[in-house]
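Give me the 3D structure for Cytosine/adenosine deaminase.
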Amino acid sequence: MLKKVCNKGEIPIAAIIFHGDDVVSKAYTTEKKEGRYLVHAEIQAILEMDKERYSFKTRKELQLFVNLEPCMMCFGAAIHSFIGEVYYFFESPTDGGAAWAEKTWYDNHKDSVFKLPKIYKGILSEESKKIFKNFLDISPRDGYYDWVKTLI
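Predicted structure for Cytosine/adenosine deaminase (152 residues):
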């Protein structure tokens, strides 16, 4: 799927939410197609999941997988949706929200109803980097290109 996304000129970021072995929702970033900036893969997958009106208990069992560390907006959406686990393939040093949250969450949210999801990082990182390198090979030199280059 991500190779097709690259060929469409989109940044190759995809998200999928599982409940156990069942796929709840999946999406990829569609900023170029839609001409909008808040259509990140994670946001779209979370919004689709939210339509199902899962219970609080079930939401804590959900797992969000994304091939790049979620930005602060997307990671915040995962927290506010009560997703229990977040898996990402490699870090986004310029805007990664998971690393920031891990460093600051417990000092500032001791009594919050919102809990930090369990965070797992580094799975399939080399495979994901290859997809981003492919994006650089076929993408025009624009702002998206410049940002992706900071990841590699």
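The mean pLDDT is 90. Let me know if you want a second pass.
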